[in-house]
Design brief:
169 residues, alpha+beta, 10 strands
Length: 169
């Protein structure tokens, strides 16, 4: 399977469906040394006159160390056929198992980072800014903090410029 580089403006992309319902794999590192995790939180938009993707990663996730170390990461999007693979990658740690062996996904170098041969779309992202979410930042008292952070650490947000867009040929 091969990918074709394209312009972001040519991509038909519903971020609410792609990120929130279909999920994405966020990956950092090179194919020989990388990790990936499933994410269903994120945004795509324009900030600082750049096309950006924002993703959120908890510091206790194995992928966190890879994202912190690398300049680039990818967001890979798949068809429904790969839902069980994404589910596995979101519920198992790369510290404890070989996610590629367990899911059958094939890592490939793409744009200086790692994507997956089975993906339909891969966005290569260059980190621009990060910040930590905190309880004191919530402006409403409608249970968001309690529902999402009762025992788990708060996420770090990564705002990254989308520097490459690849679609399956």
């Amino acid at each position: 399977m091969s990918f074709r580089k394209t312009e972001l403006s040519k991509l038909s992309f519903d971020p609410f469906a792609k990120i929130g319902k279909e999920w994405m794999l966020v990956s950092a590192g090179k194919p020989g040394s990388f990790n990936t995790m499933t994410a269903s939180w994120g945004q795509v938009g324009v900030l600082w006159s750049r096309n950006v993707l924002t993703c959120y990663i908890r510091p206790n996730r194995y992928t966190f160390g890879f994202i912190e170390k690398e300049e680039l990461f990818t967001a890979s999007f798949f068809s429904e056929k790969y839902r069980s693979a994404l589910s596995f990658c979101g519920s198992h740690s790369g510290r404890d198992c070989d996610k590629m062996k367990e899911t059958g996904l094939t890592p490939v170098e793409i744009g200086g980072s790692t994507g997956f041969e089975e993906a339909d779309i891969v966005l290569v992202c260059r980190k621009l800014y990060s910040y930590d979410l905190e309880e004191k930042g919530f402006l409403t008292d409608d249970g968001i903090a309690e529902q999402n952070y009762s025992s788990a650490p708060y996420h770090r947000a990564y705002i990254a410029e989308i520097v490459g867009v690849y679609v399956k040929e």
